[in-house]
Design goal:
The complex is a heterodimer of chains A (about 350) and B (about 280). Chain A has helices at about 1-5, 65-70, 100-110, 130-140, 145-155, 175-185, 205-220, 230-240, 255-260, 265-275, 310-315; strands at about 15-30, 35-50, 55-60, 80-90, 95, 115, 190-195, 225-230, 240-245, 250-255, 320-325, 330. Chain A has about 350 residues and is an alpha/beta fold. Chain A has one domain: Rossmann fold, CATH 3.40.50.300. In chain A, the strands form two sheets. Chain A has an eight-stranded mixed beta sheet, with helices on both faces. Chain A has a four-stranded antiparallel beta sheet with strand order 2-1-4-5. The two termini of chain B are about 25 Å apart. Chain B has helices spanning about 1-10, 15-30, 65-100, 105-120, 120-135, 140-150, 150-165, 170-175, 180-220, 230-235, 245-275, 275-285. The chains are: A alpha/beta (about 350), B mainly alpha (about 280).
């Protein structure tokens, strides 16, 4: 926890933390014919998300981003299991431990905590009208008076005509559906929104729209958002702070602008280097190898087999999470030595 | 809904034919309520009369008018089929949705039971029940026993759909938003399987009526309750074929065929309407 506290610069007004994750471990545990396999998708992660900020989570596929947010939302089911640590939300002073107070958590669902899912274009039931999805998912968490008027007003703010409520999902375009799912996630004005790759399936124009929409809604409601995507340019555009995940672990965290300017971890530096820049005609080098299998991750620093800066120490000793020069935290023995081209 | 029916009648010949055939049956059932003879009244008319203007379908050796006996028999047979179909649909729905949604070990256990039921031979079991119950064997009891045997194929079908629904985003969304399992099953998954229910209901109706006709012809049923099979049973008991009273056997058979054909065509056309692949095949795509 001391490490977490270190992210808040001294002298700065400490904002309230909406979400506190403390040494969270969640593994997929499979047992077949007596052979037990653990896939360490979320391995010893601690982080806080403050009130009124957009926290980005980045990392390549299979780095455990989605597993982490599923776990923090309490939306996991077997074979995935929480092995250690805790997730605590703070909704207006009321603290809820996700895995020790499931009843409180159920009451907070949608009311305080909503989720824009991966592939969220399909969250609307294809055989039911849009309004029925809204009734099912949201009405139970709100008081029923003027539901229809509030719903229509809410849709209007997101530039959707009230007529879409009568439509079936297949009659709407991808962008409209995406906007509807954001409407669905924000109708109860939650304090915390989890957005799992909400823009991945969209073309860049619609993507820009949707990002602006999420930002606008977040600012109006003053809520916290955890925004997950592997697209670093989206992170640069929307997030306030950024956490980089690699092989189930958080390797670096800090204010987005500072991370982009001075990445401390070699992996972060590679992610940022992979972004094309206007006028820069050099061929981007891809990192050799691929992320390790989480069944049997490499010892020491999990990035060392692919790391150009790796030294003997990296192979044996897992680097601790320490305050970094980019105003955040980093877990690397050679932090700050990687260069951005 | 009305528009769909109109379009089906206009463009789907099977649906039109099925509707007409079933319409004939339903008209007969409606007529049973205005029958001039009380049910089960024997020797109400002169026996063994050939079909004529007075007795359209002739009369039986027991002195019943075949036409009016037919109306009552069809009503009872159809009522039996509908009761079986409704009860077995309910069981199939609950078992299929729950098993598919739960998945894993629960699914395996439920499906093991399901397949056991499916493997049981129906007629010997119904005969056994008949011999145990004897005089207490009313048509309602028979319907319940038949329904308890007749759901397992359709629950497997429904389960296969539920298995895929379980992994869809909207299900995860519903779980996340705090909906409880029964609500998810009823509000989110049920609308998905309603077409399957319609289609299997027709097939189940055919199966149930076939079962009832078989058992009644053999006399393993309440023989004093008029039914289509029961009429054939009495005709056989009076050696109608030997003594040349062909109309006593022919008309029940014709109406069973009409009923089966009608239901089968409706089931086929509804299946075709529901399944986009066969709909496209019809369009020549």
């Amino acid at each position: 926890m001391q490490q977490v506290a270190a992210t808040v610069a001294p002298g700065q007004d400490t904002p309230q933390d909406t979400l506190t994750i403390d040494r969270l471990k969640a593994y997929y545990i499979n047992e077949h014919y007596g052979i037990k396999r653990e896939i360490r998708a979320v391995d010893d992660i601690s982080l806080v998300v403050r009130k009124n900020e957009i926290y980005g989570l980045a990392g390549e596929s299979s780095s455990g981003k989605t597993s982490l947010i599923k776990t923090l939302a309490g939306a996991i089911r077997p074979p995935m299991r929480v092995v250690g640590g805790s997730v605590t939300f703070d909704f207006g002073g009321e603290r809820i431990d996700v895995y020790r107070q499931p009843e409180k958590m159920r009451a907070a669902r949608w009311r305080n905590l909503s989720y824009i899912m991966q592939g969220s274009m399909n969250v609307l039931n294809p055989v039911r009208r849009v309004k029925h999805s809204f009734r099912d998912f949201a009405l139970r968490h709100m008081d029923g008076a003027n539901f229809q008027q509030r719903l229509e007003a809410h849709l209007q703010r997101l530039q959707l005509a009230p007529t879409v409520l009568e439509a079936f999902p297949h009659q709407l375009s991808g962008g409209m559906r995406q906007r509807l799912t954001i409407a669905l996630a924000t109708i109860c004005e939650p304090e915390f929104i989890i957005a799992d790759e909400p823009t991945t399936a969209l073309d860049v124009l619609v993507q820009q729209d949707v990002l602006a929409l999420i930002k606008e809604v977040q600012q109006r409601l003053g809520s916290s958002v955890v925004f997950v995507t592997h697209d670093m340019s989206v992170h640069a555009a929307i997030t306030d702070r950024l956490g980089i995940m690699y092989a189930g672990r958080l390797v670096e965290e800090g204010p987005t602008a500072e991370i982009f300017a001075h990445p401390q971890h070699p992996y972060t530096a590679h992610l940022i280097n992979s972004l094309p820049r206007i006028g820069d005609l050099r061929i981007r080098k891809s990192l050799s190898g691929k992320p390790p299998a989480l069944v049997d991750p490499p010892g020491g620093c999990r990035f060392h087999p692919r790391c150009p800066l790796a030294i003997e120490r990296c192979k044996t000793e897992p680097p601790p999470m320490l305050p970094s020069k980019a105003n955040g935290r980093v877990a690397c023995h050679r932090a700050g030595e990687a260069e951005v081209a | 809904m009305l528009k769909i029916l109109r379009d089906l009648l206009r463009y789907n010949r099977e649906f039109l034919a099925g509707s007409i055939l079933l319409g004939v049956i339903l008209a007969m059932v409606a007529l049973s309520f205005v029958s001039p003879y009380p049910e089960n009244a024997i020797y109400a008319v002169p026996p063994d009369m050939e079909p004529s203007f007075e007795h359209w379908f002739g009369t039986t050796s027991r002195g019943e008018d075949v036409f009016w006996a037919m109306t009552g028999a069809l009503r009872n047979t159809l009522a039996f089929g509908v009761l079986v179909a409704v009860i077995s649909r309910l069981i199939a729905l609950v078992v299929g949705l729950v098993s598919g949604y739960l998945g894993g070990k629960a699914d395996q256990a439920i499906m093991a039971f399901n397949d056991t039921i499916g493997a049981l031979p129906h007629i010997p079991i119904l005969l056994l029940v008949y011999f145990v119950l004897r005089s207490q064997m009313t048509w309602e009891v028979l319907a319940v026993v038949a329904a308890l045997l007749g759901w397992s194929y359709d629950s497997r079908l429904i389960r296969s759909v539920a298995l895929s629904l379980r992994h869809r985003e909207f299900t995860r969304h519903a779980v996340f938003s705090g909906m409880r399992t029964p609500q998810i099953l009823i509000r989110e998954h049920l609308p998905y399987v309603v077409p399957i229910i319609f289609f299997t209901a027709m097939n189940n109706l055919i199966w149930a009526i076939g079962l009832e006709v078989t058992l009644s012809i053999l006399g393993f049923c309440d023989i004093n309750r008029p039914s289509v099979g029961g009429m054939i049973y009495w005709a056989n008991a009076h050696s109608a074929m030997v003594s040349g009273i062909w109309w006593w056997i022919a008309f029940p058979m014709i109406f069973v065929v009409i009923l089966f054909l009608g239901l089968f065509m409706l089931a086929m056309s509804i299946n075709e309407y529901i399944d986009p692949r066969s709909r496209l095949a019809r369009m020549g795509a």
